TrEMBL record:
This is Cytochrome P450. GO terms for molecular function: heme binding; iron ion binding; monooxygenase activity; oxidoreductase activity, acting on paired donors, with incorporation or reduction of molecular oxygen. CDD domains: CYP_unk (cd20623). It comes from Streptomyces pini. Residues 1-11 have a biased composition (Polar residues). The lineage of its organism: Bacteria, Bacillati, Actinomycetota, Actinomycetes, Kitasatosporales. Gene3D superfamilies: Cytochrome P450 (1.10.630.10). Belongs to the cytochrome P450 family. Residues 1-27 are annotated as: Disordered.
Length: 424
């Protein structure tokens, strides 16, 4: 999965004795430049550091940012060298219990941290549960949800699409998929806590929010054991692999989070291009490019998951000309890799490109099949339904007024205000 937090550095305190110190040329993985114009920073990092750059995370914690397409592909294809079990990290003595990134690096009995045969077992349960979803029926569900959301604002002639549509649609689709009610205070609280844990704003407590997410999913699993239904949660419970409730809870959190936040930003990033890029909009409206191809282009150019933390070196090894020590953390620079000039020497990614991007990661720990296809169903339905129902939709502000969320992990707009002819 590629769900990641939204936090910026909180200082540069030196690690305790015995922990490797940050590289002297390390770059903070934070700041306004990174949040608003990350591709300029990626170019600068490549120029100054090559395909693997030394960075510092929150609190001055050292790590490596892998920028090259070949290098990210290599790391994700060699689990025996770059593993997912974060207990290998050589920085644990320097990490406080309330570290903002703790929900994403603290070891949990989740499919995200398992390896080898255990990972295959856990990922197999997820794939089997998702494969039972009828994608045609799921598409119809998404159309129904899109219609309900559009009905809430279509008559006003204006809307803020990120909150009212782009994030709301995958959220409702994800909770329906897992067997939760579409609406209600309980569901709304879960979605808000997921947002805080994945994409925290100033004043949010992502660690406390993640605890509440766990508690709600624990109740969901208990409810489905008592009263199973035709949903992902019930199928995971009934799987012959016999996952424990704790394992199912952790894996459901991964499924819901990956379906909601990245997919919402994928929709929003695509709508932004349609409303601000004449080439993009004309190609889609003129039928030269399908909505599916347009969505694929966005994954190359403006992928929702910019950076993913992480992998941990199993032993001392060289990568991209850098000496990586056993236990070092590697952050996967998915956005940088997707726009690597080594694979796009002309600096332009066209709409007819293939799907070899790394937006769903790569290797054994990539998003399990058929999760990417389900995400595509959600995103494609969202964009197609909006264009069909509101054909004259336009941006309600100047393009340069749009701002990105303050995140080095996720790429998504803070808001997307639009105007259109009211539809009764």
């Amino acid at each position: 999965m590629t769900d990641q937090p939204d936090q910026s550095a909180q200082g540069t305190a030196a690690p305790p004795s015995g922990c490797p110190a940050a590289h002297p040329d390390a770059v903070p993985l934070s700041g306004l430049e990174y949040q608003q114009t990350p591709f300029q920073l990626y170019r600068a990092l490549r120029r100054d550091h090559g395909t693997v750059a030394p960075v510092v995370l929150d609190g001055g914690i050292p790590a490596w940012l892998v920028l090259g397409y070949a290098e990210v592909s290599y790391v994700t294809s060699h689990d025996e060298l770059f593993a997912r079990d974060s207990r290998r990290w050589n920085q644990w003595p320097a990490i406080p219990a309330d570290w903002p990134l703790m929900p994403f690096v603290g070891y949990q009995p989740s499919v995200l941290f398992t390896e080898g045969a255990e990972h295959q077992r856990r990922a197999g349960v997820i794939s089997a549960a998702l494969e039972e979803i009828d994608q045609l029926e799921f598409s119809q569900d998404c159309q129904e949800i899109a219609g309900q959301l559009l009905a809430e604002f279509a008559g006003s002639g204006q809307a803020e699409l990120m909150s009212a549509y782009a994030h709301a649609l995958p959220m409702r689709a994800a909770v329906r998929m897992c067997g939760m009610p579409l609406e209600g205070a309980d569901t709304d609280e879960l979605v808000e806590d997921l947002r805080m844990s994945l994409d925290a704003s100033e004043g949010d407590d992502p660690v406390a929010a993640y605890v509440r997410v766990q508690e709600r999913i624990q109740r969901l699993v208990a409810e489905k054991r008592e009263d199973p239904g035709p949903d992902v949660t019930s199928r995971m419970i009934a799987d012959p692999a016999g996952l424990t409730d704790e394992e199912i809870v952790q894996d459901l959190i991964s499924i819901i989070a990956a379906a909601q936040q990245p997919t919402g930003n994928w929709i929003g990033n695509t709508l932004r291009l349609l409303l601000t890029d004449d080439r993009f909009a004309v190609n889609v409206s003129g039928g030269r490019v399908s909505v599916g191809q347009a969505l694929n282009e966005v994954l190359w150019l403006d992928t929702p998951t910019q950076n993913f933390i992480g992998r941990w070196a199993v032993r001392d090894i060289q990568l991209g000309g850098r000496q990586i020590r056993a236990g070092d953390c590697l952050v996967l620079g998915l956005a940088a890799a997707n726009t690597d000039p080594q694979i796009w020497p002309e600096g332009h990614v066209g709409a007819q490109v293939n799907s070899a991007h790394l937006s769903f990661s790569n290797g054994e720990h990539r998003c399990p099949y058929p999760a990417p296809q389900l995400a595509d169903v959600i995103a494609r339905t969202a964009v197609e339904t909006l264009l069909e129902r509101l054909p004259d939709i336009v941006l309600a502000v100047e393009p340069e007024e749009l701002t990105w969320r303050p995140s080095v992990w996720m790429r998504g707009l803070t808001s997307l205000p639009v105007a259109f002819t009211p539809v009764v």
